[in-house]
Structure formats: structure tokens, C-alpha cells
């Protein structure tokens, strides 16, 4: 038995309160080495009297990666405290006792030493990682306001272009605004959307608005506060939530704070608001690039017109927290998406969480982080992150064909095992965004492949997001190419209908897809697999074929599918899938 592969860490993603009186426990062992794991557990104050160390509960092998298996169990405790350890048995019949103080031979006199056990000393409700209950059932729609719909011609920029008349660039404008979003709420409602994620709407000179000048004003090219208030109210009337994009890592160079630094240098009252090595701030432009070199101050990605804020400064903290609470208090927004969240200090995000949840306790806090994010997801900062690391595995298999099915599954499992299940249930799952090439472009125009990949993403744990226009067949390369104008004249109606049906399926079985167990069966050589999701009395099986040969699937009550036909069992061609209820 490989003792080095055995791992558990109390009060972490390996042992945490899931509900008020329900604890989830995980154990890591070497892959395909362990036959069974039993949990020994009980109240440490009744250890001697009840001798509960003589009893075991079987743990379930819930996840597998290329190197490890992970076992899980849910337990309750009468007195809201728990001591526990693991009995691990391999396929040769060898058993060990894994405790807080190490691994021992499986002998009863070892089990009877109460100080050896892992502990959850008390189920502290105040420390439990809590999520907004509405998020797991939400289907998001990301809108880049400048390119969605022009609902008010009177606020167009001077250099506005005819809608969709040119390819998107980093500097051109087409007149999209908030009135345009209001005008299309019926469209979003018909599609089935229940959450709108808006890229920045605050005053800024660019078309993307990530170079904020005034956080307290809606950009005049997008409308005004009254229009935004109307948008939130009308969205709420339709059962839709609204999430805004906050850029708290940096300011735009046109902001009065940065301009004061340019004017007064070290004597500026805002000199300590930024990370400036020497005065005056300076840089050397790189011809043909937004970036610069020889910067003597910190910025976002070497972009000189985005100077980085010093969030250690109490004045900066007060400034940003006032903004964050203002838009909740005054406009009743439902979430903040936090740009470049990993480059802001943890201390600030802890203060941020407390401030915004005091305004609205079920507000959704979403960080933009593209890598493993455990430090931000301990329960005192964010609820979730944009789940690029998870969905990259999906794209690598379906779209890039660079990994096998098993590698995709292992990669997805690794990401989920980094976090508590609460976080996985509200993770923001997406296959494209304003920062990536569009999904149809990644699929090389193959709409069958797009539908297969999108469906697979929609049946995973987490809250799915559609980038505006994916349902209409929009294409576009990397930023700025992905930020194309929405096609309202000739959208792909078949793709729209498909997306609408997919969203309806997700909503119909939201508990199964959000909370259900996962069981995989796959064949790397044939490029076929099935995923079984089960929750309470409901079981959903999804079978996919990304290989060249015809395959067969079980025949339950068909819910959804493409590229299949019935002949006793379902027969799936390439990019075919069928989702069934058993």
C-alpha cells in the first residue's frame, strides 16, 4: 500500500460543513490501489462509553484522477462535534488505520486511543462556507454592452459606426447601450436566461470600459442611472438577476486621481493611491501596442493607461468599498464580478465581502481568476471564480482534440477537488467570453461540435454562462475579434432553438445537474463516454460520441439529443449525444 498517497486535511476542502449539521469528508488514496475505505467517527466525549471506534461507515469512491482516487461520505453528529479516522483496505486485504497522528497498523488497541483522531471540535455555523441559494439554478448571459444592441441613438459616440459595418477593433464604437439591453429583455426571457452579467458600464473612454474614470456614473454612451435602474427593475420583474463588473485592481489614466498625480507628482494627495517607484510617472510606448516598456509604476499587464491601485491604502479601501455598497444599496444589483481579482490583496477582498454582504446577504461574489483559486475560496472572500481552468479541459477534448476523454475527466475532477462542494455548485462555467475566441470559431464553424460541447458544459456542476451571440451563431477570434456586434438581422434560428431547449433542460433538472452524484463510463480509443447524474429519485444519463464509429446508448426516456436515431437502442453518429431519464 502506497502510504505516501494517503492524504486528508481537517477543516479544509477535505472536511467541511456542507449544511448546518451535515459534514462532508474526503480522503485521497493512490489510484486503483484501495478496495474500500471505512470512516470511524463519533462524539469524542462519548469515546469510552459508546466505543464507537468499533464501527465503520463505508465511504464512496467519488472522484478519480490520473494519480489518485478520492473517497467521500456525509455524516451528521448528535452534539455537533466529531472525531474521526479512516480504515483503509487494499485489494490484497491489507488494512491500515489513518489518523491525525499518522498511519498505523489496523489493530484495535490503536483504535482505542482517543487522542489519535481527526477532529471537527464543533460545527460552527458562522464559519460554514455559505452560498446564495439562487445561484446554482441560474443560467447566465454575458453582455458586452457596446456590442449588444443600440436602443438609444441619441447617446451614440461621435465616431459611431453603422451596426456591424466593420470588424471590431480596440478603438471603434457601434452604439450599444443599456436601453438596448432593456429592449431585448423579452428576447432573453424567451431564451430562458435568469442572470445577466454586464461587462463594465461605468464612465470610461474605451469601448470595453475596463479603464474606469468614474465609478459613480453610468457611461453617457450607455445611458444614465435612471436607465440602469429601469433595467434592474424590469429584469427582476422577469425573474432575472443582474451582476455588474467591478474593476478594482486599477483605474483609468483619465481619472481625476491619476491626473492629479501627473500634475503634482509626489505632492499629490493621491500619490499613495498607486504603486509608483519614482516621480514623475513615465513609460516608453511600444509602437502598435497598447502596452509599454520602461514603466516606473505598476499597471495592469504593462498597459500604461491602467495604473494599479494600492489597495493596502486605507483611503483606497474606503473609496472602493463605498462604490461596491453604493450600487447594491441604490440599485439592488445581485452580484459583483471582480476583474483581475487575483492581483488584489486578500485583506481587501475579506473587507469587501463583509461590506457587500451586509448590504445584501445573498449577493453573488465572483472573481476573475484563471488558475487554481483555493486562497480566494475559503469562505471569507469569494463565492466562486470564473471557471476557466475547469472548462479548459472540456475545450481541450471537444474542440482542440489535444487530450483523451480520461484526461478531460481527470482534469475536471482535479479542479473540483480543490474546493468545497458549495463552491463547485456556484462556479461560473463558460466556454467563451469577451477575453477568448468565440466558441463557434474554436469549433471551426462546426455547429454540431459546438452543440455537443455546449451541452456537455450545461450538465456539469456549476452555473453555466452563454456569451452573447453564441446562441445566434456569432464567430470571432481573440479579443477584440470576439467582441462583435450581435446579429439581430439574420441570427441562426436553429442554434437559437437548440440553446433554448438546452436551457429548458438545465432548468427542468436543475437539482440533478447542480447537486447530483457523477458516474463516468468511457472508452478513450473510441472517443465515447457516458455521464450519469443522480439526485434523490432522479437519474439522468448523457451519452456522447466524438469518435468516427456508430455507437449505441441505453434507451430510457429521451430528453435531448443530436445526431442519433432509434433502432432498439439509441445509435449515435460523430458529435452525437443523447440525454435520457432512467
From TrEMBL:
It catalyses: Endohydrolysis of (1->4)-alpha-D-glucosidic linkages in polysaccharides containing three or more (1->4)-alpha-linked D-glucose units. Pfam families: Alpha-amylase, Alpha-amylase_N. SUPFAM superfamilies: (Trans)glycosidases. Its EC number is 3.2.1.1. It comes from the Bacteria. InterPro entries: Alpha_amylase, GH, GH13_cat_dom, Glyco_hydro_13_lg-like_dom, Ig-like_fold, O16G_dom_2. Signal peptide: none annotated. Belongs to the glycosyl hydrolase 13 family. This is Alpha-amylase. It comes from Enterococcus devriesei.
Amino acid at each position: 500500500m502506497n502510504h505516501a498517497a494517503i492524504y486528508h486535511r481537517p477543516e479544509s476542502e477535505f472536511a467541511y460543513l456542507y449544511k448546518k449539521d451535515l459534514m462532508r469528508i474526503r480522503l485521497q488514496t493512490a489510484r486503483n490501489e484501495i478496495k474500500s475505505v471505512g470512516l470511524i467517527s463519533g462524539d469524542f466525549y462519548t469515546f469510552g462509553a459508546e466505543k464507537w471506534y468499533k464501527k465503520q461507515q463505508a465511504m464512496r469512491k467519488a472522484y478519480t484522477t490520473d494519480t489518485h482516487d478520492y473517497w467521500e461520505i456525509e455524516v451528521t453528529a448528535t452534539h455537533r462535534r466529531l472525531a474521526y479516522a479512516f480504515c483503509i483496505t487494499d485489494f490484497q486485504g491489507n488494512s491500515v488505520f489513518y489518523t491525525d497522528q499518522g498511519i498505523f497498523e489496523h489493530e484495535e488497541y490503536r483504535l482505542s486511543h482517543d487522542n489519535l483522531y481527526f477532529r471537527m471540535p464543533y460545527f460552527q455555523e458562522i464559519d460554514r462556507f455559505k452560498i446564495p441559494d439562487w445561484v446554482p439554478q441560474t443560467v447566465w448571459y454575458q453582455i458586452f454592452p457596446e456590442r449588444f444592441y443600440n436602443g438609444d441613438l441619441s447617446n451614440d459616440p461621435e465616431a459611431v459606426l453603422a451596426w456591424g459595418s466593420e470588424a471590431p477593433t480596440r478603438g471603434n464604437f457601434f452604439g450599444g447601450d443599456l436601453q438596448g439591453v432593456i429592449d431585448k429583455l423579452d428576447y432573453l426571457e424567451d431564451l430562458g436566461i435568469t442572470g445577466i452579467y454586464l461587462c463594465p458600464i461605468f464612465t470610461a473612454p474605451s469601448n470595453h470600459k475596463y479603464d474606469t474614470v468614474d465609478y459613480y456614473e453610468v457611461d453617457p454612451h450607455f445611458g444614465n442611472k435612471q436607465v440602469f435602474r429601469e433595467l434592474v427593475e424590469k429584469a427582476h420583474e422577469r425573474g432575472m438577476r443582474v451582476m455588474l463588473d467591478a474593476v478594482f485592481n486599477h483605474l483609468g489614466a483619465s481619472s481625476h486621481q491619476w491626473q492629479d498625480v501627473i500634475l503634482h507628482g509626489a505632492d499629490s494627495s493621491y500619490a499613495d493611491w498607486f504603486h509608483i517607484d519614482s516621480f514623475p510617472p513615465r513609460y516608453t510606448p511600444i509602437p502598435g501596442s497598447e502596452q509599454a516598456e520602461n514603466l516606473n509604476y505598476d499597471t495592469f499587464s504593462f498597459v500604461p493607461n491602467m495604473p494599479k491601485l494600492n489597495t493596502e491604502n486605507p483611503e483606497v479601501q474606503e473609496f472602493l468599498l463605498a462604490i461596491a455598497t453604493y450600487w447594491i444599496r441604490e440599485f439592488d444589483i445581485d452580484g459583483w464580478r471582480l476583474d483581475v481579482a487575483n492581483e488584489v490583496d486578500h485583506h481587501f477582498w475579506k473587507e469587501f465581502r463583509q461590506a457587500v454582504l451586509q448590504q445584501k446577504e445573498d449577493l453573488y461574489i465572483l472573481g476573475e481568476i484563471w488558475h487554481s483559486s483555493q486562497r480566494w475560496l475559503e469562505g471569507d472572500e469569494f463565492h466562486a471564480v470564473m471557471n476557466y481552468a475547469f472548462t479548459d479541459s472540456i475545450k481541450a477534448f471537444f474542440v482542440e482534440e489535444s487530450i483523451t476523454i480520461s484526461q478531460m475527466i481527470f482534469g475536471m475532477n482535479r479542479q473540483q477537488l480543490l474546493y468545497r462542494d458549495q463552491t463547485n455548485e456556484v462556479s461560473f462555467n463558460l466556454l467563451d467570453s469577451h477575453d477568448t475566441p468565440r466558441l463557434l470559431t474554436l469549433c471551426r464553424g462546426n455547429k454540431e461540435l459546438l452543440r455537443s460541447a455546449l451541452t456537455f458544459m450545461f450538465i456539469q456542476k456549476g452555473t453555466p454562462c452563454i456569451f452573447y451571440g453564441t446562441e445566434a451563431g456569432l464567430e470571432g477570434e481573440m479579443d477584440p475579434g470576439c467582441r462583435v456586434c450581435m446579429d439581430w438581422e439574420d441570427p441562426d434560428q436553429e442554434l437559437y432553438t437548440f440553446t433554448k431547449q438546452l436551457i429548458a433542460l438545465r432548468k427542468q433538472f436543475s437539482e440533478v445537474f447542480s447537486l447530483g452524484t457523477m458516474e463516468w463510463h468511457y472508452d478513450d480509443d473510441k472517443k465515447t463516454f457516458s455521464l450519469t447524474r443522480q439526485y434523490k429519485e432522479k437519474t439522468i444519463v448523457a451519452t456522447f460520441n466524438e469518435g468516427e464509429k456508430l455507437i449505441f446508448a441505453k434507451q430510457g426516456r429521451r430528453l435531448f439529443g443530436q445526431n442519433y436515431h432509434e433502432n432498439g437502442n439509441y445509435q449515435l453518429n460523430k458529435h452525437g449525444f443523447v440525454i435520457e431519464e432512467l
